[in-house]
């Protein structure tokens, strides 16, 4: 009985470690470039600092556009709602212009609420506006908090499937050993 338990542990632990190593190596795609970098993505660099923009957004914009940019009084900003006549609503120049000057509702707009210049806070500087635009752009590159990359999804799937298989093997072992003891007891009882 101890030999089989030992054998099970000798096989299960290395198998778990190997599967974990494989799942770690499953993400062979190169890591994305940092937010402000334009080298890998070909996209223009962000116009400001998205971390500062997040703070400014919470203080000035969340009331109308929602705490998670989901919309409310104003349109959703993640994913950003399409506006008629605007080819790229994530263009930094367009966003900076809207935040700086505000916007009156146009026919076909998702919301018919006017946006005041600088969200009604005249104290916002030009850099603050750029930081807000950078935050909105960055959040739209990670819609809904960011989907997992295919490599990360594979890695997590392999890990949890491996844990499940190892757990099932262990439970099967426990049940079979209990069943074998039960059969042995029944056989001994019949012999008496």
List keywords for this structure.
192 residues, Cytochrome Bc1 Complex, Chain D, domain 2, mainly alpha
Could you walk me through the main structural features you see in this protein, from its secondary elements to its overall organization?
- The radius of gyration is 29 Å and the shape is elongated.
- The chain has 6 helices and no strands.
- The longest helix has 42 residues, at 150-191.
- The model is unreliable at 27-42 (pLDDT under 50).
- The chain has 192 residues and is mainly α.
- The chain is 56% helix and 0% strand.
- The protein has helices at residues 2-25, 50-60, 62-65, 92-101, 126-141, 150-191.
Gist?
The protein has 192 residues and is an all-alpha fold. It has six helices and no strands.
Contiguous helical run count: 6
Q: What fraction of the residues are assigned to beta strands by DSSP? A: under 5%
Percent helix, as a range, is 55-70%
What is the CATH topology descriptor of the largest domain?
Answer: Cytochrome Bc1 Complex, Chain D, domain 2
User: Which architecture of the largest domain per CATH?
Assistant: Orthogonal Bundle
Number of domains: 2
Please, what is the average pLDDT? 79
Unreliable parts = 27-42
Straight-line distance between termini? 24 Å
Rg (C-alpha, Å): 29 Å
Q: What is the CATH C-level name of the largest domain?
A: Mainly Alpha
């Amino acid at each position: 009985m101890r030999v089989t338990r030992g054998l099970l542990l000798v096989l299960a632990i290395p198998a778990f470690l190997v599967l974990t190593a494989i799942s770690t190596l499953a993400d062979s795609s190169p890591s994305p470039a940092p937010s402000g970098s334009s080298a890998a993505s070909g996209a223009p660099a962000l116009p400001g600092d998205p971390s500062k923009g997040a703070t400014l957004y919470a203080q000035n914009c969340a009331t109308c556009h929602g705490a998670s940019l989901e919309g409310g009084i104003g349109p959703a900003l993640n994913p950003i709602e399409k506006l008629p006549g605007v080819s790229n609503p994530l263009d930094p120049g367009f966003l900076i212009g809207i935040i700086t000057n505000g916007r009156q509702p146009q026919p076909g707009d998702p919301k018919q609420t006017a946006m005041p210049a600088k969200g009604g806070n005249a104290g916002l500087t030009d850099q603050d506006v750029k930081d807000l635009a950078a935050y909105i752009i960055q959040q739209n590159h990670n819609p809904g908090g960011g989907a997992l990359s295919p490599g990360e999804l594979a890695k997590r799937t392999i890990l949890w499937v491996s844990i499940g298989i190892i757990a099932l093997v262990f439970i099967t072992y426990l049940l079979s050993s209990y069943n074998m003891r039960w059969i042995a007891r029944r056989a001994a009882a019949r012999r008496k």
